[in-house]
Specification:
single chain, 5 domains, Neuraminidase
């Protein structure tokens, strides 16, 4: 029997090793196995013939080389002049040599005869290194050249900027991460703030100075808005994400911001796309050689009205330069929960195609916008190389050189798409418009005209009385919205104006009034609006009203209203979370109000309310403590009130503990208290009490002097501390996608804190860092479908830095995994590089060792034998009468398991040599020592 078992183990081991070697084998260059059409350089006139466009539309040339070269961003001023950023330094060759040279420019394109085609190009600003964004503002022209945001002041009448000045830092990590992951966008939005993609900051000029404010981290490249001011953005592998409502942070939010609006994204080009990164990976290309899923999504434009027919309003157009296509997404944009339908068109050859496709591989649409004439404008970088060097795979580099895609340089086009059944609208000159004309322009059908009029009116002298009259007398909903935000920009919006707008009982307009000036309303006025808000049935209005109530959250009357709101709407996650956000900082008072309410009865909805409220309290305490001592009195008050929910109210305690447990396991700092809370030292519970398991889970979020289960972080040696510092410095490359604290970026990359992919086998994590990973992958219950490129090629990722990075990741946030050794990591790295990113299925086939192995074995007490084994990187326990289950790691040597209402705690003991030959079983508050069986 022993021989048979041994033979079985040998076969299994060989099978795993062989399958692993198969996964890491070298592959024949894929692009040579596919018949790829040539990619000759086409003139603009020839390029026009390469396009296939949706029926009813026409595409026109606006500008081409030499008027514009390597364009990446654009912005019109009130005279109709088009300012274009030229990123001339991008990938001068297949190795990116020369990207640090100051060859970037901003050019000003002028249409002298008004025919829609640019006639002249003036160099407005030059000597720039990799500029990436531009925006016309009242103060002048903003130009982003990492690590600086420049202002060219007072641009009207000027043909060159010779007095630029720094107004802010911008993309300051430009020398640390890929240029694909730097701030960009500079969108002047409806609310008068300037938003960025790949950024958690927004800007605004106040008193002539640019101030910044922390906000949500959004997207990767490109940002746009709809007529209500909702922000939309994307990542390279996701067409569309966005926010259902304005939010400055994610405190207390689980839904509504950073939502993936387009799902199961596919792209339908009209040419073979072998010239994309990682084309050799199964599933990247279709069987016919076309790109299957987006990989280079860049920029977007929400069509908000103008030249296209009404049916296209709220459609969103998204460039995909790797597929040489522009995608059309049709949204239900007037509804709260935005959904997008991918609109494609029939094609005789390929079956389906996008709104715009090209057979020209050098057509590289990298951004889009709606122009002064209401047409859709596309920025075409027109070049062979579109993949940046940092993630350029050897096969793609080889293909670029062999197919001549690295030459020529110095090209670029700007295209305009118009609907054939509607005449092209004339560009409206607003430079000389008087106040009345600008106010009238707020109702113009073209969004650029409305936005520009709003911007200009924000600083026009003497216009406030006329705007206030217009706001009250005008029936145009869009115009009134813009008028509201003009008054907000001028600091001229008062409580009376907001109240009068609310009195009109137009839910859309009322929503904007509360967003723009809800904090101006006195408490009594806001409370007076409760009946209207609830009866209107307009969810954005409800959320805006609750956000306005936050100004008066300390008021008992407001807290009662929040309780009433929760009573009526506890099943709506959006209203529930908005009400709890309104109570931020006042969670204890709100909890007291809730507990005193007769409406609080056992139900799934009320359990969710209490759980979310408890989670919100913990998040607030964690934000205040930042890992240091928490507000001891507040924490003990909260836990005391939780403990008081006994007997028939035990369901409340369970719900409140659940919220604490959810917060504690989400990567937030552990709250350090001065003394142990009574709830966690209560000896009256038995292991069969449901509260036992709930308290054990919540208890992980707290520690205190003498805590036997304190944080669980093992002290580092001096050498490990040195390595960690190197890894922490390298983490800047990871932070671009996973966030500075490892909390993840919505729609882009998952959290690292609390992820078993990080705390599991070192052999897996190291390979994921080195060679990348491709979805689908599940992280904390959420599925991610992106592609993470490998980092093996980074010159500064040597064995020491890789070891330090793994140490840093495995101690980040809630992670408590032990530090790997330098020798172990170097051994993993010595394995030949994998040519494709790992998948979850493939990485699980890689053999590994783990510190958990030292706990494996049999431990016997009386007639019960506990068997511990390591499965898929997790420690599992099995025992007669208990069955088997995975253990939850509490610290380096402690684990717990909850099954059938019973909770067991296992604490493994080490001897002087570090060997584990004994464990302590904690059951019902009693400790039992159990020796390891021989």
């Amino acid at each position: 029997m022993k021989k048979a078992l041994l033979a079985t183990l040998i076969v299994l081991t060989l099978g795993v090793a062989i399958s692993w070697l198969w996964l890491t084998r070298e592959q024949v260059p894929f692009y040579k196995s596919v018949e790829t059409p040539p990619a000759p350089v086409l003139t603009p006139q020839q390029a026009l013939q390469s396009f296939e466009l949706a029926p009813g539309f026409a595409i026109e040339l606006v500008a081409a080389e030499p008027l514009v070269v390597d364009p990446v961003a654009m912005s019109w001023d009130e005279s109709g002049r088009l300012f274009v950023v030229e990123m001339r330094g991008f990938m001068p060759d297949a190795d990116g040599n020369g990207e640090d040279q100051p060859v970037g420019r901003v050019v000003m394109l002028l249409d002298d005869d008004g025919d829609g085609a640019m006639d002249r190009s003036e160099v407005f600003l030059d000597g720039l290194v990799m500029p990436r964004a531009v925006a016309v503002v009242n103060e002048g022209l903003l130009v982003a050249e990492p690590p600086v945001l420049w202002l060219c002041p007072d641009i009207q009448g000027k043909v060159r900027c010779d007095n630029k000045r720094k107004v802010a830092n911008y993309a300051t990590n430009h020398d640390q991460v890929s240029m694909e992951h730097l701030e960009n966008g500079l969108l002047l939005a409806l609310d008068n703030w300037i938003y960025n993609a790949k950024s958690d900051r927004r800007f605004r000029f106040l008193g002539g100075e640019l101030v910044d404010e922390k906000t949500l981290s959004r997207g990767q490249w490109g940002i746009s808005q709809d007529n209500s001011g909702r922000l939309y953005y994307n990542t390279n592998s996701n067409f569309l994400s966005g926010d259902y409502f304005p939010a400055s942070d994610q405190h207390g939010l689980s839904k509504g911001v950073g939502e993936a609006i387009a799902h199961n994204d596919e792209v339908f080009s009209t040419r073979v796309n072998t010239g994309v990164n990682r084309a050799y990976i199964e599933g990247v290309l279709r069987d016919d050689g076309r790109l299957k899923a987006p990989t280079a999504v860049s920029g977007l434009a929400v069509y908000r009205g103008g030249q296209f027919p009404q049916e296209y309003r709220n459609d969103i157009f998204v460039p995909e330069p790797a597929a040489n296509a522009v995608v059309q997404l049709r949204t239900n944009g007037d509804e709260f929960e935005v959904r997008a339908e991918h609109v494609t068109y029939p094609d005789e050859t390929w079956g389906r195609k996008e709104f715009l496709t090209s057979s020209d591989e050098r057509f590289r649409p990298v951004d889009a916008g709606i122009g002064p004439d209401g047409a859709l404008y596309l920025i075409d970088m027109y070049r062979g190389i579109i993949q940046h060097k940092d993630f350029l795979t050897p096969q793609l580099r080889e293909q670029i050189l062999e197919r001549g895609l690295d030459k020529p340089l110095g090209q670029g086009r700007i295209w305009r798409i118009v609907h054939s059944d509607t005449r092209r609208l004339d560009t409206l000159q607003l430079t000389q418009s008087d106040n009345d004309e600008l106010i009238a322009a707020l109702a113009h059908p073209v969004p650029w005209v409305r936005d520009t009029a709003q911007r200009l009116l924000a600083v026009r002298p003497g216009v406030t009385p006329a705007l206030q009259d217009y706001l009250q007398e005008n029936d145009d909903e869009l115009a009134s919205i813009h008028a509201l935000w003009v008054l907000e920009a001028r600091k001229a919006l008062d409580a009376d104006s907001v109240a009068r707008v609310l009195a009109r009982q137009n839910a859309v307009l009322a929503t904007q009034a509360l967003r723009a000036g809800g904090e101006l309303l006195p408490e009594v006025e806001l409370l007076r609006q409760q009946a209207y808000v609830q009866e209107a049935g307009h969810l954005p209005l409800y959320i805006a009203w609750l956000a306005a109530l936050a100004t008066h959250a300390q008021s008992p009357a407001v807290q009662l209203v929040l309780v009433d709101t929760l009573h009526i709407n506890y099943q709506s996650v959006y209203v529930r979370e908005a009400a709890l956000r309104a109570a931020r900082g006042q969670e204890f008072a709100l909890l007291q109000q809730l507990l005193a309410s007769e409406a609080l009865q056992p139900s799934a909805g009320w359990q969710a309310v209490l759980s979310d409220l408890s989670r919100s309290f913990y998040r607030g305490q964690a934000a205040l403590s930042k890992g240091s001592a928490a507000d001891d009195e507040a924490a003990h008050q909260w836990l005391g009130l939780v403990l008081a929910q006994r007997g028939e109210h035990q369901w409340r305690q369970l719900a409140l503990l659940d919220g604490l447990a959810r917060a504690a396991s989400s990567g937030l700092p552990i709250l350090e208290l001065a003394v142990a809370p009574t709830i966690f030292s209560d000896k009256t519970l038995t292991e069969n009490d449901p509260l036992w398991a709930a308290r054990l889970s919540a208890r992980r979020g707290f520690t205190w002097p003498g805590d036997e289960l304190a944080s669980g972080l093992q002290p580092l040696t001096g050498e490990q501390t040195r390595l960690l510092a190197k890894g922490k410095h390298f983490y800047r490359h990871c932070a671009a996608c996973h966030g500075p604290d490892g909390d993840g970026v919505p729609g882009l990359a998952p959290e690292l804190s609390g992820s078993v992919w990080v705390t599991g086998p070192v052999e897996w994590l190291a390979r994921i860092v080195l060679d990348g990973m491709s979805g689908p992958i599940d992280v904390n219950g959420k599925t991610w479908n992106g592609v993470m490129p490998g980092h093996r090629q980074f010159a500064d990722l040597d064995d020491e830095t890789l070891t330090g990075l793994l140490i840093y990741l495995r101690r980040m946030g809630a992670n408590r995994a032990p530090a790997p050794s330098l020798d172990r990591v170097a051994s993993i790295r010595s394995v030949p590089a994998r040519t494709a990113p790992w998948t979850a299925k493939a990485i699980r086939q890689v053999p590994y060792t783990t510190p958990l192995d030292r706990f494996a074995g049999k431990y016997k007490i009386s007639f019960i034998t506990f068997t511990f084994s390591v499965e898929q990187g997790e420690l599992q326990v099995s025992a007669p009468m208990y069955g088997s289950a995975p253990l939850e790691q509490i610290d380096a040597n402690s684990f717990s398991v909850s099954q059938g209402g019973e909770v067991l705690l296992f604490r493994f003991e080490e001897d002087a040599q570090g060997e584990v030959n004994e464990l302590v079983l904690v059951r019902g508050g009693q400790e039992h020592r159990i020796e390891k069986s021989l």
